[in-house]
């Protein structure tokens, strides 16, 4: 068990180091998320009050769309020089490959959120009414679920030739309950000072996270088995 | 009443479409089988 | 065994031929017209039947996915695929009839009602599943990938339902309760009989289509294998 986590950390470290060298994926994700904010403000007039209602949703739209860009890369980039075969041949559990990839993706997406979410609040001159800690907790739980299922499906889609197109198609329907829960919880926390109603949504997200973490860990070895 | 008609006609159309797809697959299979039979017959090899 | 399955197919076909006029009679003539919604309420019988079969088909996809992960064989692979195809068919029917019914009773084509949304998401999951099956590669690999997705998708469906339900009530969660249909609880016994009968007929239709589809897919596999074999022989001869 400990060795699985240690291997996972090593794989995550490898991904992060290669990202630090190129700075391509995260950079593009950040730029893309800012672009999405821009496009949204063109679509909904930013002066209008309407935009305030879509901000909770916008946080998650940004996260998911820019996250999909990064998830696509996480396995496809391993095909160069058949690195994935190398990983598979290495004496590590497939679970640790999965967990390592998920951890790296989680860090990338968190970095993107670190830029994009404050920017969203600044650009639309939005003031947080609820507690900051709860917002962080909701973003953490939601992003965790997104990355867990996203990394899993990215590994699945990487087997196909058109994986960039396949991934969103697979991912978005499965994400729908998480998105509903996350947006509702975010809305409650952002707009109200009390967060009583958000708790049942957080519970739903936590249940989703736990269930899919278990299932993905169990099933991931089948995805990697052979190509 | 119009909507009732619309709903049931879509139901039948959809089921019929699926059956048609199955039929087309079967036809393709038959064609392929015939082709295979032709290939398997001895003179085909001799002609080649 | 083969003979037996042939007889089952025949029997199913004749049962369906007999049942369909009966169900049409029951739906259009025999069952009473609903007071509030009028004749449009008759969509209900087939709509519920198709929705039920859609969920049943997906459940079967899930079961066969688990099974083909435990013991990979071509039969469960094919069965899961055909079940998914028929599931798409019935999900589409349920969605379209649901929309038409919504138009008549709520005057909107699409209401964000939990069952409708769940069915919509189910449709997308089905389509994604079929896209995975369209990947190229040996069937063993595709079987594994699609089974994995089938299991995850199957687990997802109840969560979608719960989430949309909470979302709609916007209050504290209700997990159970509320009648099965939208007609407001009590069903007329005649309506109930018609409903049960239509459920039965559509399930039989599903079984029939499944058997046919599986058989055709199996033959396809056999033909493909034969073709490959002959190709191999031909190339050997030419050498």
What does this structure look like?
- The complex is a heterotrimer of chains A (227), B (48) and C (239).
- Chain A has 227 residues and is an all-alpha fold.
- Chain A has eight helices and no strands.
- In chain A, helix 2 runs antiparallel to helix 3, helix 3 packs parallel to helix 6 and helix 6 runs parallel beside helix 8.
- Chain A is globular.
- With 48 residues, chain B is mostly helical.
- The longest helix of chain B is centred in the middle third of the chain and has 39 residues.
- The mean pLDDT of chain B is 80.
- By secondary structure, chain C is mainly α.
- The radius of gyration of chain C is 21 Å and the shape is globular.
- The two termini of chain C are 42 Å apart.
- Chains A and C meet through helix 6, helix 7 and helix 8 of A and helix 4 and helix 5 of C.
List keywords for this structure.
heterotrimer, B: 48 residues, mainly alpha, 0% strand, rod-shaped, C: 239 residues
Mean pLDDT of chain A: 86
Largest interface: A-C, 33 and 31 residues
The poorly predicted ranges of chain C are 171-184
The description of the largest β-sheet of chain C is: none
Distance from N terminus to C terminus of chain A (CA atoms, Å) equals: 27 Å
Roughly how many Å is the radius of gyration of chain C?
A: 21 Å
Approximate shape of chain A: globular
* Tally of helical segments of chain C: 6
Q: How much helix, percentage-wise, in residues of chain C?
A: over 70%
The low-pLDDT segments of chain A are: none
SS elements, strand count of chain A? 0
- What is the global morphology of chain C? globular
């Amino acid at each position: 068990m400990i060795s699985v986590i240690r291997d996972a950390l090593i794989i995550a470290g490898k991904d992060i180091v290669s990202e630090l060298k190129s700075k391509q994926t995260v950079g593009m994700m950040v730029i893309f998320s800012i672009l999405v904010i821009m496009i949204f403000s063109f679509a909904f007039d930013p002066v209008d009050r309407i935009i305030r209602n879509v901000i909770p949703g916008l946080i998650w739209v940004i996260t998911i769309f820019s996250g999909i860009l990064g998830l696509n890369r996480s396995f496809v980039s391993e095909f160069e020089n058949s690195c994935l075969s190398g990983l598979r041949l290495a004496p590590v559990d497939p679970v640790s490959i999965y967990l390592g990839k998920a951890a790296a993706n989680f860090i990338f997406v968190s970095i993107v959120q670190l830029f994009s979410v404050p920017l969203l609040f600044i650009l639309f001159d939005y003031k947080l009414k609820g507690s900051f800690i709860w917002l962080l907790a909701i973003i953490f739980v939601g992003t965790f679920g997104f990355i867990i299922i996203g990394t899993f499906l990215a590994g699945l889609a990487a087997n196909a030739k058109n994986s960039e197109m396949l991934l969103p198609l697979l991912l978005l329907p499965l994400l729908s309950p998480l998105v509903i829960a996350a947006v509702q919880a975010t809305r409650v926390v952002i707009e109200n000072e009390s967060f009583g109603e958000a708790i049942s949504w957080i519970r739903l997200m936590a249940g989703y996270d736990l269930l899919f973490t278990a299932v993905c860990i169990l099933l991931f070895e089948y995805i990697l088995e052979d190509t | 009443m119009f909507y009732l008609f619309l709903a049931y006609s879509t139901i039948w159309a959809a089921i019929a479409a699926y059956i048609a797809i199955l039929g087309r697959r079967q036809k393709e299979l038959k064609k392929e089988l015939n082709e295979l039979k032709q290939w398997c017959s001895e003179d085909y090899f001799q002609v080649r | 065994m083969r003979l037996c399955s042939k007889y089952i197919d025949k029997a199913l076909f004749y049962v369906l031929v007999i049942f369909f006029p009966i169900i049409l009679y029951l739906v259009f003539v025999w069952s009473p017209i609903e007071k509030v919604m009028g004749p449009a309420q008759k969509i209900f019988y087939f709509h519920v039947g198709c929705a039920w079969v859609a969920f049943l088909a997906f459940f079967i996809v899930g079961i066969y996915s688990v099974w083909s992960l435990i013991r990979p064989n071509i039969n469960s692979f094919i069965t899961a695929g055909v079940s998914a195809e028929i599931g798409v068919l019935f999900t589409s029917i349920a969605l379209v009839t649901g929309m038409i019914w919504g138009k008549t009773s709520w005057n909107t084509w699409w209401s964000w009602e939990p069952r409708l949304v769940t069915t919509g998401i189910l449709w997308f999951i089905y389509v994604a599943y079929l896209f995975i099956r369209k990947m190229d590669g040996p069937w063993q690999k595709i079987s594994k990938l699609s089974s994995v997705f089938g299991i995850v998708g199957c687990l997802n469906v109840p969560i979608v339902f719960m989430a949309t339900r909470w979302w709609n009530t916007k209050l504290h969660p209700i997990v159970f309760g509320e009648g099965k249909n939208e007609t407001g609880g009590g069903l007329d016994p005649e309506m109930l009989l018609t409903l049960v009968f239509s459920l039965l007929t559509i399930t039989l239709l599903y079984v029939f289509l499944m058997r046919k589809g599986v058989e055709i897919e199996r033959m396809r596999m056999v033909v493909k294998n034969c073709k490959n074999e002959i190709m191999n022989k031909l190339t050997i001869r030419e050498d």
